[in-house]
Amino acid sequence: MFSSPLVLQFPPSIQMTDEQFFEFCQFNRDLRIERNKLGEISIMPPTGSETGNRNFNVAVQLGVWAEQDGTGICFDSSTGFKLSTRAERSPDASWMKLERWNTLSSAQKQKFAPICPDFIIELRSPSDRLQLLQEKMEEYMQEPGIQLGWLIDRKHRQVYIYSPGKPVACLDNPDTINADPVLPGFILNMSKIW
Q: How many Cβ atoms from other residues are within 10 Å of residue 41's Cβ?
C-alpha cells in the first residue's frame, strides 16, 4: 500500500520566505518536510522501523568510509539542502567534499545549506511512489556540484544510478554498489539493505 505525502499549497500572496520555512521545519521537527521549486510543502509519512534500520545501515557504511577517506563530510536524512531551484530537499544520506562545504558561511551551515551534496542516496520505503523519487533524483541531477546519486528500490531489488548528463543505469539485485571514481573506494554492501 502506498501513501502519498501530504502536499500543502499556498497562494502566491502567502508564500513562506526561506527564513519562515526554516522556522516552520524547526517548529515541526518531528515531521519529514520538504519544499519543491513551486513552493509546495510536502509532509512525508514517517518510515517504518525496517526502512529506518536499512537507512541507518546505508548511513553507517557511508560514514565509516567518509571517516577513513577524510576528504568530505556526511549528512543524515534529517538534513535539508536549499537547491538552486529554491526547493529544499533532504536525501536519506549524502556526502559533500570539504572544499565545497568550507565555502559556506557559518550562518549558511546552521540552516538549510544553499548547496547540493556531491553524492546523494535515496532509499525507497514501502510508502514511497517510485515515480516521485525518480523525479526527485532528476531534480538533483540538474544541480551544480552533484556528481552521483543512487536510488535504492528495495521492493524490486534494484538500484538506479544517476550521473549528470548520462542516462540512468539500473542494477538488478547487486551484492554491492561501487561509487568510484566520485567516492574512491566506497562500496555499499547491499546485504544489510535488501
A: 20
Cα angle 81-38-85, degrees, rounded to a multiple of 5: 45
Q: Which domains does the chain have, with CATH numbers?
A: 47-192 (3.90.1570.10)
Which carries the bigger pLDDT value, residue 25 or residue 15? Answer: 25
> DSSP assignment, residue 190?
G
CB 93 within 8 A of CB 75: yes
Give backbone dihedrals phi and psi of 13, rounded to 5 degrees, phi first.
-70, -15
What is d(CA 125, CA 132) in angstroms, rounded to the nearest whole number?
Answer: 12
Task: Name the pLDDT band for 3 (thresholds 50, 70, 90).
Answer: low
pLDDT digits (tens, 9 = 90+) for 67-100: 999 999 999 999 999 999 999 999 999 999 999 9
Question: Is this prediction's pTM over 0.85?
Answer: yes
Neighbours of 17 (CB within 10 A): 8
Q: Are the C-beta atoms of residues 176 and 188 closer than 8 Å to each other?
A: yes
Q: How far apart are CA 107 and CA 68, in angstroms?
A: 28
Nearest to 147 by CA among 49, 72, 46: 72
